[in-house]
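Each letter names a residue; structure tokens follow underneath. Both lines appear below:
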Amino acid sequence: MRYVVVAVLGMIWPGAALAQPVVSLSSKAESGWTSNASESVGGAPDFYLRHSHDLSVTTLTGPLALRGSLQVEQQVFRLHQGENDLSLAGGVEAGLALTDGLSLRLGYAQTREWNGDMVDLGPLVVSLETPVVEHEILGEIAVEDAGRRVVLGVDVSRRQPGPTTFAGLPLPPLRLEAEMLQVRARADGEWVVTPEMAGLTRLHWTTTRISEDDRTAFGREPAGLAELAAGLRLRQGALATEAWIGVDLVWPEAAPHLLHRLPFFEASAELAASDRLMLEARGFAGVELADPVDGVASRVLEAELGGRLALAERASLTMGLAWRREQGLYDESSTSTRRSLRAGITMPLAAGLEAGLTASHAEIAEPGGAYRVSTIGLTLNGKV
């Protein structure tokens, strides 16, 4: 059992009087049953409790905006305690208006995870626990003028898995995952065409870095990605859409001549079909570099369809379908597919507090085999 105690002492900017900070806290708790606690082939059913909490503090002083945030997430099981997970994340972000139409944004966040897994070895079930630290840094500058906006930015993330411990086995802690550094440079543009329409452009360059030792030990290879796309954002009556189309260029760092040229696509839409019914859809075709199935780079296809129906003045029903397929670009035999559906009903209990019943079913096919996961749970959401 772990206890996490967090003290938020505040944020100070020398020489300036800060405005009254705005504090926001949201929490979610879910308790229920799952048919597959380990989400793996041969996984057994169990009862679970999941809860998450998000605290943010925002303050303004002249051209400066500061925001601090803290998130805590935990999942515990009644029987399969080796599958328990805990995540703690904190970050700070600053935005500064340099001149009229010119602004700067900087941020840093750190996430610490303790991930549990249970491995069935036949006569013996071994519990594994892996600590992970992830650092994220962002910096961007934005220029706005007469309905046009250009954002230049850099995002850096570093994932550092720690040594995994093996409960019940006479083995020393051992790292089972590669460390990975990812850097993304981006240029995004937007210009207003009409009050209902805006044009969009995107140029992103992403690279991953993995040490020579980890390449050999874990079968990971660094790769690069260049993405060029254009799009439109449209709001007309009850319909809101955003669509991108472009090209992805991806290559392994050690073999740049093995270049892949792939179409890029991303679109989302929301439609208020009536006063009571809201529909939404999303599609995506892109490349995965952070955790590809073949260890280098993967092609990812995604599709989602959902809706929300107001059953009465206070209750609402949500439903959704999702499909995802990932295939290795340099080992096409490595594939992963996930099909899922979900449904839920929510009802407000008081201002900022609602309860619900949710159910989901997913079918997953991975290199290690195929399995199913079904869940049903009661939820309680609150926000102040």
